[in-house]
Structures are given as C-alpha cells and as structure tokens.
Amino acid sequence: MGGLINCRARKHRSARIILVATVFLQCAFAVEDTLEQPLEQATASAPESGASAPYSVECGQVNDAGEPFCYVDRDTYIGWRTFHGNCHVCHAQDAVGSTFAPNLLSRIQDFDFEMFVDSTANGYTGQVGVMPPWKDNPNVNKRYKELFAYLKARSDGALPPGRPKKKP
C-alpha cells in the first residue's frame, strides 16, 4: 500500500512539474500571429481622448479593522481582476515587475492606450524576455480598456498596492 501511495505522489509531482514548465514556456515565448480582430475591437472601446484619467479612485476609507482601502470604478476593478488572473504571474503582484518581466508602473507612463493595446495584443520583445501576444485570449482581449485603467491608476499613484473595492 505504501509503495502505491508513493507512486501516485511521484506521478502528481511530475504532472505539476510539467504544468509549471508549460506555463513558463507560454510566458517565455511569443507566437507570431497577425489576427487583427481583437485589436480593432479594443481600439473601438478606447477611453475618450478628452478624459483626464481612465479611472476613478477614492481612497481614505477605513474598514472595521482600522485598515485603509480604496474604492474604484467598475472598469478599474475589472482591470485589477484581469491583471491578477492573467498578468501577475510574470509581472508580479501589483505590477511591480519580476526578474524576467518589467515593472509596468514605470513602463505605462510612456504608453498611450493604442501603444498599450498593440503591445498587449501582439506581444512584446524586451531586453530580458518576450511577452506572448494576448489577442487570442478572450479573458484579456476583451478587457484592454479595463486593464489599462487599472495599470494607469497604479502608475499614477492614485491606487496603492492591494485589492481595491468596487464602488457600491
């Protein structure tokens, strides 16, 4: 019986190693593909050109435990969820960067919305690694506007690290 359990444990450990290696390879290598449909859809939903900021953040609230938190608009909250569901694996929690993916807080300062959509949709080759294209992933390609709002709020210093709360 003990040998059977050890065999199953080794089998599951091997499966986890293969899964981790697969995820790493997906983050490390970009696949060249020129589908333009998701990029066109995202550009159509770009923030208005006259808008000062694509986000709304209200900080200064304190919860029952005395901890401060911020309220954000729906789009910024969805952007936070999208980032933490897809991007934080490489770019680290709160977009501060890792050893193989850049700090997006400083990078987004130089990007307008169109540049952000282009690099997110088509991938990006940097000094250290390669970001894969996200144009074929509906969890990302339908949320460029929201993702940009979250990253812009973080990079502008309007939104501190951590999980924001959606405005009621």
Structure characterization notes:
This protein is mainly alpha-helical and 168 residues long. It has a single domain, classed as Cytochrome Bc1 Complex, Chain D, domain 2, CATH 1.10.760. It is 49% helix and 10% strand. The chain contains 7 helices and 5 strands; from the N terminus they run ααββαααββααβ. It has helices at 2-28, 37-44, 74-91, 104-107, 113-122, 138-141, 144-155, and strands at 57-62, 68-72, 124-125, 130-131, 165-166. Strands 1-2-5 form a 3-stranded mixed sheet. Strands 3-4 form a two-stranded antiparallel sheet. Helix 2 (37-44) runs antiparallel to helix 5 (113-122). The chain is globular. The N and C termini lie far apart (55 Å). The model is unreliable at 4-9 and 17-50 (pLDDT under 50).
Number of separate helices = 7
Mean of all residue-level pLDDT scores: 77
Largest sheet: spatial strand order: 1-2-5
Rough outline:
globular
User: Main beta sheet: strand number and arrangement?
Assistant: 3 strands, mixed
What is the domain tally? Answer: 1
Task: Give the full name of the CATH homologous superfamily.
Answer: Cytochrome c-like domain
Low-confidence runs of at least 5 consecutive residues:
4-9, 17-50
Oligomer: single chain
Q: State the end-to-end distance.
A: 55 Å
Helix content percent band: 40-55%
Structural class comes to mainly alpha
CATH level-two architecture? Orthogonal Bundle
Strand count: 5
CATH class placement: Mainly Alpha
CATH topology: Cytochrome Bc1 Complex, Chain D, domain 2
The fraction of residues assigned to DSSP E strands is 5-15%
Radius of gyration: 19 Å
Strand and helix order = HHEEHHHEEHHE
